[in-house]
Amino acid sequence: MRSKSRAAFTLDVARHDQHRLTVATAYDELLFHGPCFQVIEAIDGLSERGAAARVRSTRPIDWLTGSGADQQEWIFDPALVDAAAQMALLWARTVHGHSCLPARFGRIARLRDTLPARLRMAFDNVPSADRHLVGANVYFVDDADRVVMLIEGMECVGSAALNRLGGTAASAAPRALSA
User: Fold this and answer.
1) Which of 52, 81, 154, 165 has CB atoms 3.0–4.6 Å from 44's, for a disulfide?
2) C-alpha closest to that of 38 among 27, 51, 28
3) Domain 9-58+78-169 class, CATH top level
């Protein structure tokens, strides 16, 4: 099924240099995602205002087993949508010391029919009086600074009790997911 995409707009991805975090530390110690969802390739920085990273898009047909011709095209790349939630967890863990999980995505919009293989992700924190509620708008930007996909109104709920979830990606054996 094809959907009509909206026109892209440009965005100057902000620098965030208050905190540093490597991708190896993120996936080996803080996140719990297996190989298919490990799409963050570099974390350029984090700050109270948000974060910037480089990500790669995926083709779910390449990692889903038993998928037929009717599943050749996806409207959204589920790994990129999850990368936004992963960045929320990394941001909350780095800035507030607790992990968080997604509770709500307000709006997800694809602004181009096909996504480039490599993108920059701008994670803009939406401040909250409750430090356990992480709100953000997340923009996926191509090399020409055009926003090609965005997530508005993402909300995640955090707790230090969730910190125990991290570190399982290093031991996850690569395997195909079933549909």
Assistant:
1) 52
2) 27
3) alpha beta
